[in-house]
Request: fold
Amino acid sequence: MATLELRNVNKTYGAGLPDTLKNIELKIDDGEFLILVGPSGCGKSTLMNCIAGLENISGGAILVDDADISGMSPKDRDIAMVFQSYALYPTMSVRDNIAFGLKIRKMPTAEIDAEVARVAKLLQIEHLLTRKPGQLSGGQQQRVAMGRALARRPKIYLFDEPLSNLDAKLRVEMRTEMKLMHQRLKTTTVYVTHDQIEAMTLGDKVAVMKDGIIQQFGTPKQIYNDPANLFVASFIGSPPMNFIPLRLQRQDGHLLALLDSGQARCELPLGPKDAGLEDREVILGIRPEQISLAPAEANGLPTLRAEVQVIEPTGPDTLVFVTLNGTKVCCRLAPDQAPEAGETLTLQFDPARVLLFDAQTGERLGAAGAPMPEARSGNVAQFKGR
Ligand SMILES: Nc1ncnc2c1ncn2[C@@H]1O[C@H](COP(=O)(O)OP(=O)(O)OP(=O)(O)O)[C@@H](O)[C@H]1O
Ligand SMILES: [Mg+2]
Reply:
């Protein structure tokens, strides 16, 4: 059990190379689960290796329980890591790979056997215990690597995409197991993933990284509902948020966004906003689930008739694509509401959930990191459909 803090951490792999980590600031409380996401090459594994002590940092400090561990060797840090590339001992059996960390800590043999049996059951690898890593599939090797970390009770767990080689069914099972295990053990954890659902469901906090810079650090809900910029908004969410470039207008002191389906137009009232946003090129962001079918009886929300271009039934949802302002826009409907391609639908939008981004910089417009207050309270001007 431990707190983990990164203070202004920088990392460069060599003189003349660009910084791989830039001024990383993160603080996770005791027992928290941090998800680290970002595109390939943004520095996630580098950050994990720095925390584990396998790479030296070039500046800043890493603190565990408020003590600076930056200069400590990996074995003294009491941090267990599951690597993206398993890193199993090839000549040892699965059983010995899992038991290795316990043996060097001189745990009694009976306890080691019980611990190996426990994690092997958890990870469904009981039948593989006598094999060598070379005789396992990628997914099985990955589970052994997890088993090796889980057999220890370190201060901190680091998981670098631990489930990425598992098949879809096992991955979902393991995700639930990870969560159960964390609820039980409450060990401070940093977990790298590319999986949207893991990012949203597993973490107490999420850090979104790009080019070695933390773009946003917050709860999954904050990251999803109040993305700090266009990058975070586009990276989190599947299917992704729709982005519609347009120029804002002002009418009677209220900002309006004009949406055009080719068949009809609607003015999306965005509430009274800071001066300076009118006439500005912005990117309007709206998530697929925030566009719905308009009910038969008007409820005051803006509506717009649009032709369905294509539909994609995913099982639980049907994704319906229309064109607004010349941009392909995805709407997420219930399967029983699903139209046919070529039909015309009346869609409705919730202006309170619309986000605005600067078209040039990608920064969020309105209150920093949060929807604009008047939009959030739903206090928006009555829509004028045409
Ligand atoms: N040992 C190294 N020497 C030099 N450059 C390195 C080294 N390891 C990583 N890099 C570079 O640092 C950057 C970050 O790499 P890193 O492996 O941390 O990315 P990542 O976010 O984990 O990517 P992925 O999602 O593909 O695993 C990349 O540009 C990579 O080429
Ligand atoms: Mg990596």
Observations:
- Residues 44-45, 84, 160 surround magnesium ion (ligand 2) (CB under 6 Å).
- The CA atoms of residues 166 and 214 lie 28 Å apart.
- The longest helix spans residues 168-185.
